[in-house]
Amino acid sequence: MADITPRRVLGIETSCDETSAAVVYGTPTDMRLESLVILSQDVHRLFGGVVPEIASRQHLTGIVPAVRTALADANTTLRDLDAIAVTHAPGLVGALLVGTSYAKALGCTHNTPVVPVHHLEGHLFATLLEHPEATPPFTALLVSGGHTLLLDVEAWGRYRLLGQTRDDAAGEAFDKVAKLLGLPYPGGRHIEALARDAVAPSQTHPHRFARPMLRKSAKPGDDDYYDCSFSGLKTAVLYAVRAAEQGGVFNEQRGSIARGFQDSLIDTLAEKVARAARVHRRTRVVLGGGVACNEALQHAIRDRIAPRGTLFAPMPRLATDNAAMIAAAGLFRYHAGERADPTLTAQASLPIPGIFS
Ligand code: KG4
Ligand code: ZN
Asked: What CATH code would you report for 136-313?
């Protein structure tokens, strides 16, 4: 019989440019967030992207105060923890190493088991902390700076891969287009803000960009039924930017280009999600990853899965990288009996445990 005793788990996340620690208490079906600390590394803005070496150094200085504060905010101590969950993959190896080494040292010193967590499985659990109904079976769209995955989640730990991006991740496309439009890094929320005030380009308008990999006649089983591709869209934006610059109307047209780009990307993602929910007869859709913050994306998916489907999107603090989602996934993995051995180390890339196609 499965162990259903409530447990207290410290989560640690250092896979990219957020140093984060959190405490979650409960069981895989009933958990609550007791504290969450996120130290965001603003320094990368100066470079227009994450500089791995700087990220590792900042994790080194941030990890101890982040964990201390998370424990204090949760009114708990290291002795009261049942487990330490830590992101071990995928991500920047130097950044991940800070988290895994620290978790192993803490675990060893306090005789606390360490549970390795896959970052993307963490994103799948984030919504659960806010919406207890966001449980399998559901259709999941994970859209972050590094990944775009469409999954059918039959049960926690059983993830059927339906589709993914063939080139740029959705967040990466947002960030690259933001750069073309002269917006700060990371650019997703700046594009969303710019697009919000712009008029949607009409069918014949030059900023109405083609919807990538969205053949109306596509059928389940076709290669392009669920997959996405955003690099062609990015090139179309580049040409639009050049044309606007040459015409001396770049400033006036920035909003329209941002809106055209966002509409095209969202239309594609929303249609793929609706196809997955329809084919697998899922009434729940769960979003994860930084791009899940995008309200236009949320509206578009809600529209397409109505009236039967319900969309669950995490609040921005839980959508972008954070340790609460790592603690939540860690709680599930702990109850499933998973424990790290002393050889645990960081891995730059690794499939999500339990993924199949
Ligand atoms: O999940 P996340 O915090 O980090 C990764 O694991 O990559 O995602 C960061 C990504 C960035 O590409 C950022 O531009 C994007 O999420 N993002 C958004 C929005 N907020 C963050 N993209 C579109 N609209 C937003 N509102
Ligand atoms: Zn992430």
From this structure: 3.30.420.40
